[in-house]
Write a structure and sequence with these properties.
The protein has 187 residues and is an alpha+beta fold. The protein is built from four helices and eight strands, in the order H-E-E-H-E-H-E-E-E-E-E-H. The strands form two sheets. It has a five-stranded antiparallel beta sheet. The protein has a three-stranded antiparallel beta sheet with strand order 1-4-8. Helix 3 runs antiparallel to helix 4.
Length: 187
């Protein structure tokens, strides 16, 4: 019995020592370091407030890549999908696209919405002067959702990116790019 109590005491002391060492070694979980790749800052937007933001303002070129299942589409859309270099956007197209992305702070009632499908067929890739990709905007017209990949997405906790689908659709129509790729009846 004494041996068992001694072992329990040893294990308890060991656990306390390990816990104390971890507590001293780890930063306060409530204040993550800003260089932490998973750090998400608090939003300066009020709930329900929105602000337009460009994806990668320093990019010198934006190209549209059309993706999807080509065997289900017209020859024109198949040809768009086959363009491995994408379609370059004009400065006017870029201005429309830059006005289309909106950072939005969710209201409490909006915080549990999820996209229906998210299968983007319009991917805008942003390139710097060296030709390196510095940002990406994926647009799904089927479920009307977007995702932004950028070094500086300027999105904080409780925020989502919204998108002016109609404004961008007019630009795509002028480029002869349909919005209902692989989701007929949904766009």
């Amino acid at each position: 019995m004494k041996q068992r109590n001694a072992m329990i005491a040893v294990w308890a002391a060991l656990l306390i020592a390990v816990g104390s060492a971890l507590a001293l070694a780890v930063q306060d979980a409530g204040t993550p370091a800003e260089d932490d790749p998973f750090f998400v800052p608090e939003s300066e937007l009020k709930p329900g407030e929105s602000r337009r933001v460009p994806v990668s303002p320093d990019a010198v070129e934006v190209r549209l890549f059309v993706e999807g299942l080509p065997f289900r589409e017209t020859p024109h859309v198949q040809a768009l999908m086959d363009r491995t270099d994408g379609l370059p956007l004009t400065s006017a197209d870029r201005a429309i696209l830059d006005r289309s992305l909106i950072r939005h702070r969710l209201l409490p009632s909006e915080q549990h919405a999820t996209p229906a499908c998210y299968d983007p067929h319009h991917v805008f890739r942003y390139f710097n002067a060296k030709g390196e990709q510095v940002g990406k905007l994926e647009v799904c017209y089927c479920c009307r959702q977007v995702r932004v990949y950028s070094d500086d997405p300027r999105r904080a906790r409780g925020e989502v990116f919204d998108f002016d689908f109609e404004g961008a659709a007019a630009m795509l129509k002028a480029m002869n790019v349909p919005t209902d790729i692989n989701c007929s009846g949904h766009a």
